[in-house]
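re: ur question from earlier - yeah i can do the single chain one, its not a big deal. heres the input i used so u can compare w yours
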Amino acid sequence: MIKNPLNLFLLFFLIYLPANAQNECSVNGLRVDARTKSTPLYTSYSTRVICQLPEFYENSRTVATNIYGSRTDKQTNATGFYYSKFIDGRWWVVDPQGYLSICRGLNSISQGVGTTSKTTFNSKFGTTATWMNKTKDLLFDNGFYCAGAWSSTADVVGDNNSQPSKPMAYTIMLYFMNGFGAGRTSIQPGHAGYPFNAIFVFEKAFATYCDNKAKALANNKTDKNLFGYFTDNELPFFNASLTNFLKIGTVAPQDENYLATKKWLADNSLTEADATNTDVKARFLGYVAQTYFSIVYNAIKKYDPNHMVLGPRVNAAEARDNKYFMNAAGQYVDILAINYYGVWTPNTTSMIKWGQTSGKPFMVTEFYTKGADVGLANTSGAGWIVKTQLDRGFEYQNYTLALLESKYCVGWNWFKYMDNDPSIPNAEPSNTDANKGIISIKYQGYMPLLDKMKELNFKVYNLIDYFDKVDTDINNYSKLPAYLSDLFINDIRISAFNPDTLSYEIMLQEGPMNTPKIQFSLPNLAMKATILNPINIQSTSIAERTASITVTSADGLKTRKYEIVFKLPQDVSAVPEIKSFNFDFYPNPVNKNDVLTFRNTDANNSLLINNITGKQVYALKLNESISTLPLNGLLCGLYLVSLTNETGITTKKLIVK
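and the output i got, formated as C-alpha cells:
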C-alpha cells in the first residue's frame, strides 16, 4: 500500500469530534485504558480493531457459512465428525460435512442459579427448552457456534436433537486427574490444587481410573455435534515440577510419584543434585507431560475414536514455552487447549512456536475482559479490567485478530456466557463478582460488546483470507486497472470504503465548517490520481459540496472516478427520514453514557444504528413494546437509527452528545 504524502493530492476535511474522543478508525490508532485487579491505575494499551486494517473492506460480501458456522467455499474430506487439519500453511477445524471452520464459542453456557437470575428466567423463558432455543439464537446471531467448558451439555444436546437444523458444537470436561485425586486436592481460584504442586500421574491406579472413566464415552461415538474432550483444567505444569516431585519423598518416601521421579533421574544418569539444572528441569516436565497426555489420550481414543482430544487447558506460560512439554503434548492431542491470560495482545512469535514445537494447532479456551461500568467489583478472575463495554468489544477484536494472524489458532472460547452473581454464597473463588459475561445475571446482553464480537465473528473468514493474502472472487481487486485502496477523512479511515463503491456521502458534524481534508491510498506507484476540490461545503448546491478523485491506470488507458458528497447537519433533507411505520426513541439528543429507550416496537423488529461513515455500531432485535439500549460511552456524533419489521423500514436521526 502506498499512501500519498500530505503535500500531494491533499485536501482538508474536518469531522467534528469532542476534544477527548477517540475514533476507532483513526490513522493514529486506538488506545484502550486497562488494568489488572491488583493494579489500581489504568494503563493505555494500543488496540487494533478491524477498521484499522489497511485495505480490508468491511462492506465486501461476507464469506458464506453453513449451519456449523463453517465457510462453504472451502471443503476437504468429511468424516461426519469434527477434526483438525493443516491446509496450505494454516490449521483448520474441519466440520462434520468437511467444510473448514474456526471455532468461536463461549464457556459456561448455563442458567443462572442466583435469585435474580431465577426470577428473570421464569418471567423471560419459563422453560429450559425455551431458554436454550433463545440462547442459541442469541449466540448464532452474534457468530458463536460452540459451547465451551462447563456448559449445560444435556440442554445443548437435547436442543440439537430436537432441532437438528440448529446444531451447536459442544465440549465435555472429563477431569481425569482431578477426579482421581478427589479427597487429596484443594480448591484454588480457577482450578484444583495438588500437594507440592505435583499431580498423581505416576501412580499405576491413575491409568486404571482413566480407562474405567472413559468407558462411558462410547455412548458419544456417533454424536456429530460433539467437538471434543477437555481432559482436565489448568494442571500445575511448572518447570519446578522436578523439585516438587522430589519434595514428596520428604514426607512419603514410598510414594509412587516420588519413586518414579527417582527412577527417571537414575535412568538418565542423573542425581537429585542435578534438579537445579534448567535443561534437566525442562526435560522432566516433558516426561510428566508424556506420561499424563499419553494415558488420557489412549483412554479416550480406546472408547471413542471419533472425537478430538483437547488436553487439560494449559495455563502455565512456562509449560507452553518448554519444547519438551509441547512436543510431548502434541503427540497426544488433536488440538491443544490453552488458557491464555496476562497479555493484552497475544504474542505472534510465541503462538507460532507453540504450533511448531507441538506439531498441532491450538485454541484459546479462556480469555475475557471485565467492564467497570456495570457496578460489579471485579476483584475475582484473571481478565483485564477496562472502563466500558465498548472497550471490552475493542479488546475482543484486538485479541482475536492476533490469534487469526498466527495461522496455528483454530478457535477460541470467551469466558463466559453470564456475569458472576455476587449474591451466591461460597462461589468458586475466581468467579465471585466480575463482569465476565456477554449477558448480565438478568439475561440482558451487553450490546456494545456483542456488536464488536459480531463484527469480527462474521468476518472471520474474510479476515483469514486478508491475513493469508488470498486472492478471492470477493476481494480480488488486484486485477482492476485503476482503483483506490483506502480512503481517509480527517485522519479517519472510512470503514465503509470499497474499491467498487464509487460514491460516498459524508455527514458533517456540528462545529466549524473548515475545508475538508481527504487522504487516500493507491495500490502501487504506477497508478496516478487527481483530485477535484469541493467548491464550497456550506453551499446549498450538492455539486459545490462534492469532491472527486480520479485514478488512472499505469498505462494511462483506464480511469476510475470516486465522488464524495459532503452534507450539512442543518440540512434536513441530507438524511431523509423514511417512514413506513411509527416508532420512537428518547431522549434525543442523548448523552453518550445514558440509556436509549424505544417505544411502539413490535415483536421481531430488527434495529440497526450506523454512524456517519456507514459503519454499523449496533445491531439487535427488539421483542417488546418498550426496549432499552445502554449506550455505554458511544462516541458523540450523528447516527442513523433504522427499524425493520414485516411492514417495512423506518430510519431516523439520533444525536449523541
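Residues 1-21, 572-580 have pLDDT under 50 and may be disordered. not sure if urs matches, ping me
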